Amino acid sequence: MNSHASIPVVILCGGMGTRLREETEFKPKPLVAVGGMPILWHIMKIYGHHGFRRFILCLGYKGHLIKEFFLNYPWMANDVTLYLKRHRQVVHEVHPPEDWEITFADTGLETPTGGRVARIRKYVDTPDFCVTYGDGLSDVDLGRLVAFHRARGRTATLTAVHPPSPFGVVEARGGLARSFKEKPRLEGLINGGFFVFRRGIFRELRDDSVLEEEPLRRLAARRQLAVYEHQGFWMCMDTFKDVERLNRMWAEGRRPWVVWK
Questions:
Q1: Which of 84, 129, 139, 211 matches a 20 to 30 Å C-alpha distance to 199?
Q2: Cα Rg of the chain (Å, integer)
Q3: For residues 34 and 68, what is the distance between their CA atoms, to the nearest angstrom?
Q4: For the segment 193-240, what is each residue's pLDDT rounded down to a tens digit?
Q5: β-bridge partners, 160
């Protein structure tokens, strides 16, 4: 039996995406395409590969477009032949339908991240649940992440990653470059999302909570925040350059987050 099938995966999809205005003026950030499919679909495919099938999407800015994408999934994700006069359609399945249960939760236009999680409490009916952002891709082993969380027995676990530098790094000596690394991975760790929470997290959250600020700080102070260090691929789609980079990687066949193939 799939041990992860019943665990809800909460995905934060409500932000305005202001640093990606070129794309988000007309659609929400999770619908920005990578390789022809929304980044949200990629995130859900990562979880699906590890056996998760229940998703709760925290909607906000232009959330109706996310609903429309999934409600019209055969049309949106595949090639379609339409016989207009006969009112008949043939769907050529490029992306067959997934065995997913999706709850679309309107969590408000300007609600902060912690508030969005607080508002979907009624849909979480298991001791543990997952939370992640709607703009981050990774090859993190989600099965090991959940096992780590349960073994530590803490209220929350976050995935810590090494961020890539936004700049190339030059090592110089005597006026000459000794080495050059284009956007190397930095040594420090940052919050990469891909959380696992116990239901006790809801006691820390209010409608105005920013998840990454006071709630996680309180948990850390009480030694209730575990950290799962991921050494593999991770990338956040924060700017238009990130969109271009991810699509360039896709076109070149460099797709480390595509663990489902």
A1: 139
A2: 20
A3: 18
A4: 999 999 999 999 999 999 999 999 999 999 999 999 999 999 999 999
A5: 191, 229
Task: Calculate the dihedral angle through the C-alpha atoms of 157, 225, 229, 140, rounding to the nearest 10 degrees.
Answer: 10
Q: How far apart are CA 173 and CA 84, in angstroms?
A: 69
- Superfamily (CATH H level) for 8-143+190-213+230-251: Spore Coat Polysaccharide Biosynthesis Protein SpsA; Chain A (3.90.550.10)
pLDDT in tens, 49-91: 999 999 999 999 999 999 999 998 888 888 889 898 888 888 8
Do 171 and 178 contact (CB within 8 A), yes or no?
Answer: yes
Q: Which range among 60-64, 79-83, 122-126, 139-143 shows the weakest confidence by mean pLDDT? A: 79-83
CA distances from 126 to 4, 82, 106, 122 (A): 11, 43, 21, 11
Nearest-angstrom CA–CA distance, 238 and 243: 8
Residue with tokens 């006071």: 214
Predicted TM-score (pTM) of this structure:
0.89
Question: Which amino acid, one-letter code, is at 79?
Answer: D
Whats the size of the chain, residue-wise?
261
- 89 conformational bin, left if phi > 0, alpha if psi -120 to 50, beta if neither: beta
